[in-house]
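input
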Amino acid sequence: EAYVQGLSGFAQSVTGLNILAAHGDEAEAVIVYEVTTTQPATLVCAELLTFRGGKIVSDRLTFSPRKPPAE
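output
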């Protein structure tokens, strides 16, 4: 339940999404994207999706925050 609450709070802070790359086939796909939020940082994310029988069976997410340049 705490995980779902945290995820819900994060989702409410998202202000934009920019897909940088997406590659894959019937077995797996990789999507690289930037997420902007109400916080002063942009998250650069890479997600590896694995499929079996036409359904997602694994979803691995890695991300790194990137602060905006100083003014």
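quick obs: The beta strands are 14-24, 28-37, 42-52, 55-66.
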